[in-house]
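Lecture notes, part 5. Sequence design as translation. It can be helpful to think of inverse folding as translation between two languages: the language of shapes and the language of residues. The source text, in structure tokens, appears below.
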């Protein structure tokens, strides 16, 4: 792993020295000398950056720098957290974009194998392809949730960019993608054919207006995710204040931090990436918002509650709801009050889908079922299984 990573900048190291006692910067172990990495096996979280942006559709030769994000993050105080955080430094641009993709996959894969959660600061979001490919070694289908104003499907037959990497994820072997969910998309940024393709593939797509109207509604999608990525341009330009983010609409600071915390609380999320940090990052408020997004993710992980072990029925209350010729089985955790719905059509399949026999849902889904409304995500999961 160490051959792919360069140390954090001297500016960040110097900034650390002047921070007050008790801040994150005083507690995190840094990669400060080339090749001298912190002990990964003892960490719970590992932060690293990816200085790659050559596949950005708007690439004009600029460089990527994460100094201000790190300085902002390390000036914050931790919550009541357990688990060590390390900073591995950055993956520099390779000779080619493919070289960088390979390095990202190798580093992410090694962290996952050691049960360490990668927290990635990324340049162009095509690097999320390698974050996904790092799960090849697990041998199970994975769920990918992308917080983004765009679907980023693009044309998989063309050169991959930060606006088409999801298409590559869908068509490339090995096929490990069970579901792709896009949270906060804005219709005018997405070609009609991509909106239609999302529906045809039975993927989940939630418009920005629907998400912010009920931010708690994203929790079930994030509870079922393995990979979560966040495109920084999904945040309102006025909140992030970065070059390349001119959108007047998007998530505000409170909303995006709530989404990040839900991602952390999920027992399944094992990697988290914040991408499209390509623009001018001189804005202190923009850097601080990214820092707080990461802070809330770590906070969420530290407040995880294990309530998805269904071997002991005494931990759950089961509700059977008849709809037409179906009987939908809902389970409610007696510990947290969270809800699931059974997917009986794949419960006896001995393949990569075996872990997906219960689908996270909401109390509202249960109430809708009692009114003879089949939950949309349950219906999509069934149709996907029938293809």
């Amino acid at each position: 792993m160490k051959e792919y990573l360069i140390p954090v900048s001297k500016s960040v190291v110097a900034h650390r020295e002047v921070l007050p006692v008790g801040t994150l910067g005083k507690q995190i172990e840094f990669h400060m000398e080339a090749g001298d990495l912190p002990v990964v096996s003892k960490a719970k979280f590992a932060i690293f950056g990816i200085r790659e942006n050559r596949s950005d559709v708007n690439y004009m030769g600029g460089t990527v720098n994460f100094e201000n994000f790190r300085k902002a993050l390390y000036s914050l105080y931790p919550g009541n957290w357990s688990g060590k955080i390390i900073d591995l430094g950055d993956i520099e641009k390779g000779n080619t974009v493919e070289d960088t993709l390979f390095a990202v996959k190798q580093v992410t894969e090694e962290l996952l194998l050691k049960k360490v959660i990668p927290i990635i600061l990324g340049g162009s979001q095509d690097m999320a392809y390698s974050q996904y490919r790092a799960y090849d070694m697990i041998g199970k289908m994975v769920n990918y949730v992308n917080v983004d104003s765009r679907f980023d499907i693009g044309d998989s037959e063309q050169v991959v960019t930060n606006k088409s990497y999801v298409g590559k994820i869908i068509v490339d072997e090995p096929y490990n993608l069970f579901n792709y969910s896009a949270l906060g998309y804005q219709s005018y940024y997405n070609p009609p054919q991509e909106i239609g393709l999302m529906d045809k593939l039975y993927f989940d797509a939630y418009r920005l207006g629907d998400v912010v109207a009920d931010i708690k509604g994203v929790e079930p999608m994030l509870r079922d995710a393995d990979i979560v990525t966040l495109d920084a341009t999904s945040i309102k330009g006025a909140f992030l204040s970065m070059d390349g983010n001119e959108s007047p609409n998007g998530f505000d600071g409170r909303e995006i931090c709530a989404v990040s915390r839900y991602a952390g609380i999920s027992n399944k999320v094992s990697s988290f990436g914040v991408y499209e940090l390509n623009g001018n990052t001189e804005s202190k408020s923009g850097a601080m918002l990214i820092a707080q997004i990461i802070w809330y993710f770590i906070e969420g992980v530290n407040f995880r509650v294990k309530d998805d072990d269904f071997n002991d029925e005494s931990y759950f209350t089961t509700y059977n709801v008849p709809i037409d010729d179906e009987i939908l089985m809902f389970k409610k955790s007696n510990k947290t009050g969270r809800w699931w719905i059974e997917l009986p059509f794949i419960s006896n399949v001995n393949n990569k889908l075996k872990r997906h026999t219960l689908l996270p849902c909401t109390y509202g889904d249960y109430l809708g079922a009692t009114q003879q409304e089949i939950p949309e995500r349950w219906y999509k999961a069934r149709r996907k299984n029938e293809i």
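The translated text above is only one of many valid answers, since several sequences can fold into similar shapes. The mean pLDDT is 91.
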